[in-house]
Write a structure and sequence with these properties.
10 strands, alpha+beta, single chain
C-alpha cells in the first residue's frame, strides 16, 4: 500500500499579497509624523502663533535697530567732543610754541651777555700796561693772533670704521685707524713744548685751561665736538717749530701712528696763519689777605676770585 504524505493543518490565515509592502503602506497611511501632529494640535489649542521664521526675522531686525542706535549715539558724542579735543590740542600747541619761543629768547640773551662779558674781559686784558698785559692777553686767548707758524693736519686712516676689535682698543675710540683724544693731546703738548705761542684746532683756540676729551666717537675741545681731519695751526717760527716737533717724542709718536695704524698727517711751515680769539674766557685772580688774617691762621692764605663767561 503506498505511503501517504502527512497533511499539515494550520489555523493562521493565508498571507496577504502585499505583506512585504507593509512599510510603504504605513508611510502612505500615516503621511504626517506624530510629533508634527502633536505640535500642530498644541498651537491650535494655544490659539495659534507666529511662525518661527518670522520671529527670527523680527529679532534680527530689532538687533539691527539697536546696533544702528548705538552707532548713531556714538557718532553724535564724537561729533560733540571733537571741537573740545581740537581746542585742547590747539592750546597745547600754543603753549609749546610759546615756551619754545621763550627758551630761544633766553638763549639769545645768554649769548649776548656772554659776548658782552668776553668783550669786557678782552678790553681789560688789552688795556695799556706794557708787555706783561699783552702776554697775559695772548696766553688767555683774548685776542686774535696772526703771524708765521706751522700747519699740521691729522686724519683717520683710510677705510677706518667705528667699532671694536683693534689693538688700540682701550677706551673711547676703538678702531685701529682712528685718531683719539689722547693723540691730539700729545700733538698739542708737543707744539707747546716746541715753542708755539698760540694753538688752534679746527678754528677752536686753545688756552692754558683748554681740555681735549672724548665723548663717544667724537673729540671735544672745550666741550665743542670736532670732526676729522683735524687742522692744527700754531703761531711761531714755522721752520723751527716743524723741526723741533718732528724731533720730539710727540712727533715720533705721530710717526709711529702712521706706520702702525695708518693714521695720516702732514706738517708744513706757513708764512702766515691767523688764529681766532677764544670763544669764552676764564679769568682767575689771587690777592693776598691782610697781615692780621695771615697771623691768625698761622700762615699766609689767599682768596681766589673766579669770573667766567
Amino acid at each position: 500500500m503506498p505511503q501517504q504524505h502527512p497533511v499539515r493543518s494550520t489555523d493562521s490565515p493565508p498571507p496577504r499579497p502585499d505583506a512585504s509592502m507593509s512599510l510603504l503602506t504605513n508611510v502612505m497611511e500615516h503621511s504626517l509624523d506624530e510629533g508634527y501632529a502633536e505640535a500642530t494640535a498644541r498651537r491650535k489649542a494655544e490659539g495659534g502663533g507666529m511662525p518661527r521664521p518670522l520671529k527670527a526675522r523680527l529679532g534680527l531686525a530689532a538687533g539691527l535697530v539697536v546696533a544702528a542706535l548705538i552707532v548713531t549715539v556714538g557718532a553724535a558724542e564724537a561729533r560733540i567732543s571733537a571741537p573740545v579735543l581740537a581746542k585742547e590740542r590747539e592750546e597745547l600747541i600754543d603753549r609749546v610754541e610759546k615756551e619754545t619761543s621763550d627758551a630761544d629768547a633766553l638763549e639769545r640773551s645768554v649769548e649776548t651777555l656772554r659776548d658782552e662779558v668776553g668783550e669786557r674781559q678782552r678790553r681789560a686784558l688789552n688795556a695799556p700796561g706794557g708787555d706783561r698785559e699783552q702776554l697775559v692777553s695772548l696766553l688767555a686767548g683774548a685776542t686774535e693772533v696772526a703771524g708765521p707758524g706751522l700747519k699740521l693736519v691729522v686724519d683717520d686712516g683710510e677705510g677706518s670704521e667705528q667699532g671694536g676689535g683693534g689693538p688700540r682698543e682701550t677706551s673711547g675710540f676703538s678702531d685701529t685707524g682712528r685718531v683719539r683724544d689722547r693723540d691730539m693731546q700729545r700733538v698739542v703738548n708737543g707744539l707747546w713744548a716746541a715753542g708755539a705761542e698760540a694753538v688752534a684746532i679746527n678754528g677752536q683756540r686753545l688756552t692754558a685751561l683748554s681740555a681735549i676729551r672724548a665723548a663717544g666717537d667724537a673729540i671735544l675741545v672745550d666741550n665743542r665736538p670736532l670732526v676729522p681731519p683735524y687742522t692744527v695751526l700754531a703761531v711761531g717760527d714755522g721752520k723751527k717749530l716743524k723741526t723741533e716737533f718732528q724731533d720730539s717724542a710727540d712727533g715720533r709718536y705721530l710717526q709711529v701712528l702712521r706706520e702702525n695704524f695708518g693714521i695720516r698727517f702732514s706738517v708744513s711751515a706757513q708764512d702766515k696763519v691767523r688764529l681766532p680769539a677764544a670763544p669764552s674766557l676764564i679769568v682767575r685772580t689771587a690777592e693776598p689777605t691782610s697781615a692780621s688774617a695771615g697771623k691768625g691762621a698761622g700762615q699766609g692764605t689767599a682768596d681766589t676770585g673766579k669770573g667766567t663767561s
